[in-house]
């Protein structure tokens, strides 16, 4: 029987595992985290009594259902938590578990590695006290911790208001929610957002809840700086009317939507195309998630879709696997799932319009601002390198010359900003400056990695 | 079609082509340098950065030492240091047989006037307390150095341009032929250039240019895998190499440790891929941990390789063509062209301007491939041989001098799956 391996135990990976297990396959489900659930449905650490119903709000039902289904699924699958997949070689995954090397052979690979925050640099964003929006949520759900007492939320994302409300529930003071996209973008995006009225209603409810809690809410802001010497003391920005404001705070959560974690897909041989809606390089798949021979992508790791789309696409990818293996379930659920997924993804395109990544506006990031925090490369370093005679244009060359994207995170954080800053400086479309290439290890691995144990 | 006149057309904007153009321009020659991509992005921009003098092919010392003198003067030459750092090179042995090999290398180095320090176990413990006691002996050459390969070639090309060299990027030479007293060189974008001399410094692709003039060398492309760690406090001053070839590493002052190890992996110059299989990353890490145990907790963050041209006797082709007057080759640097790059450029410029150079280059003649060429021991040990044979370069097409290369064993280095993403 074909060995099917799924990477990522978020909603996409769990639903894929469920479909395969129901057909009597025993997929291997690998995840680097200690607990299943992924990002959006992250489970609190053992022994931590968090009121998840309150935190998850309208999504509490789905959260509970996913975790309950996973518990039932456990005996039917080979679940391997705390296992980082760091490379792919032929049909083997190279993994690290508890500091030890482990390889997992596969015939079919489903990659459901989710997403991470996309950030745009501004003066002061590398100060202690600045977190990514997702990071701010992760410490809250995983550890019950807050990133500060007086927290400002900055960026362009529907999760800004969600996270702000979650912080309020755990009695943090939310001093401001600053959305860089103007309110009129939200109006313009309404037709697409109407594709999923329930989620649209939820978003509007978040805004209303913030309003009634008298949380200062700004649309169309231009961020100026996060201030502080050693740690965050204030956020300075122009409001939608162009008036400068300064709000004191001790932490800032920064997020401009999500970007897929595509390194493993790249190592597995997926092709990439620049997506104009998200202004991101995304792996190319068919509508069921096929990205190559024996290679399937699902969830936010394929394209940003949110938790519901992750569940649908995980199911669909697993059905595609079954189909390709010649195991065809009696009822073909695929057409309905494809329609549902298309609707959910249209909604995400609406969100990308309503909460717009600043994109070409990053050309205004001042020269002295750090873009690559691993290697301390500033926007000015990038521009000066490009201005030199025979200077680089392609982002991989900019990286080679300046070290931007060469550090610990391998450009996962600074990549989107580098793309925009380089393209704007060259006077080109974003995609014309190429795509930062990845290599294994997708995350750092220790020199002293213990040798693989052979059973 | 416009035909432009130049004294010299240089094909290939790697380190070799850039230095050659630079020195020719200093002698007042009008040079057009043609590069299919951007300058210094191939082997010259991806190498390990070692400017090693120890353990070279004996016949290369005059060239190598001349080149090192140019490196030592790089700031005067091109106005940029490019992180040139005379950190010394420590060659280590794990047993008596290896120690003898080091001693033999050292005797050669010393005969050319290099200072070599011979170190025993007690010296090693005192000078390099971080070194594992598995190392029983070492030789240290203080004149060896390192530089940042990503910066050097563009800097040399800029200096050449400032001297009047015309540099064409994103321009591929597709045809070149002898025409009357000179050459006609045609590019993919339909331009053509006339010149008196032609330099073939096209790296791993140089075989195609040579074949345009009816000569060839059994060049095959491979990539030595390279790895780098996160920054760690700066403590490893010299670059260190195990003479058994398992590991070579150096630390840059900003803290990262760069490491490499054999065997080299076959590379694909057509699709422009030099893959690093994860199993090689594991092997390199294991070897480094065995030599510097303190680095156990340091993480590898990135890997890369590049496409280098190798020849079976592990020495390059440098000098005039054996078929065509006015044509000069410089390719097949077998993993050590960074160090001799400036020297090669200077010698080529002398041959073109003066008709001769003081540096002996006879061992590097392309004519040697008309006869049988002895395969170097390194060539047998340091490659994934089956992979090299399967790659289908000239090496595989020719009657292979080694049974190992002829056998078609499933290729571990160029995986059929997953398909390599195209660059
Ligand atoms: C930080 C963060 C917070 C979010 N919070 C919310 C929220 O509160 N509400 C909401 O609606 N949506 C939230 N989202 C959006 C959410 O990501 C999606 O809606 C949903 O979780 C996507 O599901 P998925 O299965 O595609 O990926 P995920 O749920 O992200 O799951 C991916 C899994 O893959 C694993 N993984 C990734 N790479 C590797 C590897 N190399 N080796 C092994 N395992 C790996 C990860 O550990 C993770 O468990 C958040 C996203 C992020 C990034
Ligand atoms: C990973 C690695 C590590 C190494 N480590 C070291 C080291 O530590 N020390 C050392 O001394 N050496 C080292 N080397 C070797 C060294 O890098 C090379 O020998 C040297 O850079 C060769 O320079 P080059 O100019 O001949 O080749 P390249 O840099 O490859 O330049 C050749 C150029 O020609 C261009 N070209 C090819 N065909 C055409 C065409 N038809 N038209 C136009 N342009 C064309 C190519 O695009 C390329 O830019 C290493 C090599 C690699 C790959």
Automatic annotation (TrEMBL), chain A:
Q: Which Pfam families match?
A: Fer2_BFD, Pyr_redox_2
Residues annotated as domain FAD/NAD(P)-binding = 3-314
Q: Does the record's keyword annotation contain Membrane?
A: no
Superkingdom of the source? Bacteria
Listed A to Z, the keywords are: Oxidoreductase
GO molecular function, a single term: oxidoreductase activity
Q: Boundaries of each BFD-like [2Fe-2S]-binding domain copy?
A: 371-422
Q: Which InterPro entries match?
A: BFD-like_2Fe2S-bd_dom, BFD-like_2Fe2S-bd_dom_sf, FAD/NAD-bd_sf, FAD/NAD-binding_dom, Metab_Enz_Cyan_OpOx_G3PDH, Opine_Oxase_asu/HCN_bsu
> Under what name is this protein listed?
NADPH-dependent 2,4-dienoyl-CoA reductase/sulfur reductase-like enzyme
UniProtKB/TrEMBL annotation, chain B:
Q: Give the main EC class.
A: oxidoreductase
Provide the species name. Answer: Chelatococcus composti
Q: Where is the composition biased (Low complexity)?
A: 396-423
**Matching Gene3D superfamilies:** D-Amino Acid Oxidase, subunit A, domain 2, FAD/NAD(P)-binding domain
Which parts of the sequence are annotated with region: Disordered?
A: 382-423
Give the stretches traversing the membrane: 6-25
Q: Which domain of life is it from?
A: Bacteria
Keywords attached to this Swiss-Prot or TrEMBL record, sorted alphabetically, are: Membrane, Oxidoreductase, Transmembrane, Transmembrane helix
Which GO MF terms are attached to this record?
sarcosine oxidase activity
Q: What is this protein called?
A: Sarcosine oxidase subunit beta
Q: Where is the FAD dependent oxidoreductase domain?
A: 7-351
Any Pfam family from its record, for instance, is: DAO
Naming one, the record's GO cellular component terms include: cytoplasm
The family database entries (PANTHER family) matched by this protein are listed as: FAD-DEPENDENT OXIDOREDUCTASE DOMAIN-CONTAINING PROTEIN 1, SARCOSINE DEHYDROGENASE-RELATED
According to its UniProt record, the EC number is: 1.5.3.1
